[in-house]
Amino acid sequence: MLITITGGKGGTGKTLCAVNIASMFKNHGYNVLLIDGDVENPNTYLLLGGQLEKKVAVPFFKPKISEEKCTKCGLCAENCTTHALLHVNDSYPIPILSLCSGCKLCYKICPDKAIEEDYKVVGWTYKTIVNDITLMLGELKPSEARSAAIVESLLEDLDKIISENSNKYDVIILDTAPGAHCDVELLIKRADLVIPVTEPTKFGKMDLMRIMELIKLLGKDTKVIVNRSTLLGFKQEFLKELEERGIEILGDIPLDNDIVASYCQGIPIMDDKSTYNREGDGYIAFKQIFENLLKWMHNTNKKVK
Ligand code: SF4
Ligand code: SF4
Prior knowledge:
- By secondary structure, the protein is an alpha/beta fold.
- The protein has ten helices and twelve strands.
- It has two domains: 2-49 and 131-299, Rossmann fold (3-Layer(aba) Sandwich), CATH 3.40.50.300; 59-121, Alpha-Beta Plaits, CATH 3.30.70.20.
- Strands 1, 2, 3, 6, 7, 8, 9, 10, 11 and 12 form a ten-stranded mixed sheet that branches. The chain has a two-stranded antiparallel sheet with strand order 4-5.
- One iron/sulfur cluster is lined by residues 65, 70-76, 93, 110, 112, 114-115.
- The site of one iron/sulfur cluster has 13 residues, from helix 3.
């Protein structure tokens, strides 16, 4: 089963939910793979108290023009849909790398094989095991804009794992970046269930509606978590409004000191080795969320294996 945890807005607690849901499945004896696809701000390993290991560079194609072979025909520039090749009159085409999508079309269609394959590193992936949870994480190189290339690389690694052994992991949890852009779409497309995390503010509601539109377009099952639900006393009003809009709620998490402490200490509140208060509001809220998740799985016949 594959669960994507997302949110239209940054800072709503997506990663908090991802690591704690992963921890609860792990506590119940399931093999869990957690993939951090928030490649501009990958911090799952910090919340799990782990280290980044097994660093692998993610290469990105860039065209290299051979002036010895190029006849200046201009075919590559004419067909580049992102206008990443500048061809003026009788000049050699000049690549504008900030516009290049790395599609390789120019390389494939050049009649004189005058475009050579060249690559730049746009970021890295990592793989590690923390608290018996396998974590795969992507990191975009500072100043690079091609975040989707890192997410695609993570998904290629996931496909490889599944093709080699589809039963290796019982539950796969994907943690996305905030927003409703293509990186997020790539990770939502894979999900059996999408869990957007929001907060009871006007910004939270507006961004939730944007991500719900994308989830609806992709035809995915969804259930929302409302984090910091007790913020400023709007909880009931906010939950009622979501219900009126036909949005299903998986659960809500109140403001809670143990959750703040778990952030600071890098130990998920729901990890079975943690010493947080089992009667605390945060702990009970996550427990209820997990029970609701198991009910959804039962009702939809979703199996973890
Ligand atoms: S298609 Fe090939 S030969 Fe023609 S301008 Fe481009 S690189 Fe040069
Ligand atoms: S790789 Fe694609 S986007 Fe980049 S220059 Fe070639 S055709 Fe244009």
